[in-house]
Fold this protein.
Amino acid sequence: MGIPVSGFSKKSKHDKIKWLAEAYFNDDATAIQTLKKYWNSDDRLQEMHDEFTENAISNYYLPFSVAPNFQINDTLYALPMVIEESSVVAAASNAAKFWMNRGGFKAEVISTVKTGQVHIDYFGNPAVLFSFFSEVKEKLIGSISEIQKNMKARGGGLIEIELKDETSKLMGYYELHCTFETLDAMGANFINSCLEEIADTFEAEANGYQAFETEGRGPKVVLSILSNYVPECLVKAWVSCELDHFSTEDIDGKEFADNFVRAVEMAKVEIRRAVTHNKGIMNGIDAVVLATGNDFRAVEAGVHAYASRNGNYTSLTDARIDEDTFTFSIEVPLALGTVGGLTSLHPLVKFALQLLRKPSASELMMIAAVAGLAQNFAAIRSLVTTGIQQGHMKMHLMNILNQMEATSEEKQKAIRHFTKNTVSHSAAVEFIEKLRN
Ligand code: MEV
């Protein structure tokens, strides 16, 4: 099944859509209309979006929302959040307001080092490889002087290159482990350019190296790439308050805090709970990462690997009670950038960064970590009290109403009705059907 095509990327946007409609939609005009409805009327803006990737045929909307009242280290922020899940922004905003009145969020960047590797095959005498490396190390560093000139001038660049013996993990496997400081850039392009240059120089030098010729086998570069595992690009955020701040009509503050801590302890030891717990954290982090034009796949990969750094996948957050004080914290690796990439190109990314007062990469790391902590706080608070569905379904109500193509008047009535009644899909459908009859 399926229809092959060649030269698709060479076709004009118009011809790509025509081909898709014929091949996959029986030439149905509504499919074409759907794509075109999402084109921007500003041709230049549309062209820029089309040029972000190959074979772009339309735009894919996600809501761009704002969660205000985030006090982080004495500065008040309104966080830009791009996410489709109905209740996430409401939860973030509630958590922000709660903590704003209790000293706000504190955050601190622990380190900002990123790494990249040149992965090498070598089956000769390790001592020969190590002595070759120490002879050529300065040449390897020198080979990237042009690439890193500007980065160096700003105080960043390559920090160190080490040769690592990985043969206990895989026969013949060595790596050039390179560490970098990329300042406000996420730095993927910079690091990869450096690595490829280092790899070329390494191979060129190895080709003429007498000891390898004598051995009859020299090292071979297999691949060079940055690592998205960034445990040395680490940020920490936390909140803290007296237990009685949690007291409500329904629950005593100490009991709430005990339940909260217990919920986090469960996520520390049980993988199925830990993954969902961390997914909730990523609701907040990804939303900020996306709004600010950063690479959420890189962040996701690095964060989850970090969650299993000790051999067991575990919670990224920690909660504890010391006497009358509750403290809730997160430690998370986040390689983010506030310059380069889409940051000066995508108008909404520019807007998001302006909204955050043009943060440095370190400031953005703290903001994103706080968004994750706030989200986790809101989720656990609901989970250990009312359950998650009450708030979630309240926000999801609008999606159900839109599915039913409810009018504004029907929506108003439904919202009024469901402030006092439990939302479920069937209850919402029944309510609208009754109105219509
Ligand atoms: C839903 O998107 C996120 C939660 O499942 C997180 C959690 O369970 O902690 C509510």
